[in-house]
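Notes from hallway chat w/ T.B., transcribed later so I don't forget. T.B. wanted the structure written out for a chain they're using in a teaching module, and asked if we could keep both sequence and structure tokens in one place. Agreed to drop them here.
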Amino acid sequence: MPALKVGTGKDKPVSSVAESDVETVKVAQQEGSEGRDDGVEQALPSGIEQVAGFALPAVAEAAARAPEELSGPLNLPDIAEASFGAVAGASAGLLEIVHGADDRVQITNTGVYPWRAHASLLITARDGSLWIGTGWFIGPHTLMTAGHVVYIKNSGVPGRDGFVRSIKVMPGRNGTTLPFGSVTSTNFHTVQGWVDDGDEDHDYGAIILNTDLGAQTGWFGFGVYDDATLTLSTGNISGYPGDKPDGTQWYDARRIASVGARKVYYDIDTYGGQSGSSVYRIVNGGRYAVAVHAYGGATTNSGTRIVTPVFDNMVIWKA
């Protein structure tokens, strides 16, 4: 198998903690994992999730657990506002947009896969301010998210820019209930293109946990796909938008509208707080991320496309 090279140029990794450089990692096909065998939701052959109120009803039930209850500040702003600022009249939804009728459906059985592989994020910036975002597991101790979730850029607020102080990761959160508890991380990665330039094409990052919580929740596969494959694919997004009840997970899906060299575009409804969500396709029942959701627009939202340098960094961060 070919060797995997550390990213260079704008895709050169940047970490919040000091660590030795990784030279090479052997490439293996990046598959997902369903985690624990106590609950798995089967996807539909059409490439969407089987969700009640969204084409077909869900059939799997959430596993019985002794849930952790969450208490703390509510109605927090989207982490995107820290780097990009608020837009008058747009409230917290400035970068992730609902187009026309809101087609999102709430996920309530968040204790089963794949919903438990999505995590609600409570972010503490360097200045102590609190924000929300979304992440998703790609391995036992690694979550992917947007670069602007882990590293604030150009906020204009003294002491706020740079790697955030900490992120509380809450997999499968359902309101105040945390079926897998929570883990707080201070170990983050992004790339030079985001740190130096705030380049939207390089707006991706990772959260590293000091536990293997992802072994319980499961994780998503991911891959590099050509333009033709992507434009024939249905994109799926689930995450934690700020316009819905606090800490609730919402899902939507649509055909991929178009692709660019470093972006994937789609008319999938999202809102502030879903920064960092996985944009994934379903193949033979497996979930494979194609982009990291990060931005919105008048007619389509968009995510940072997983191209070869992004893929390579993801494999290194997952190791």
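Follow-up for T.B.: Confidence is low (pLDDT under 50) at residues 20-29, 56-73, 87-94. Might be a good example for the class.
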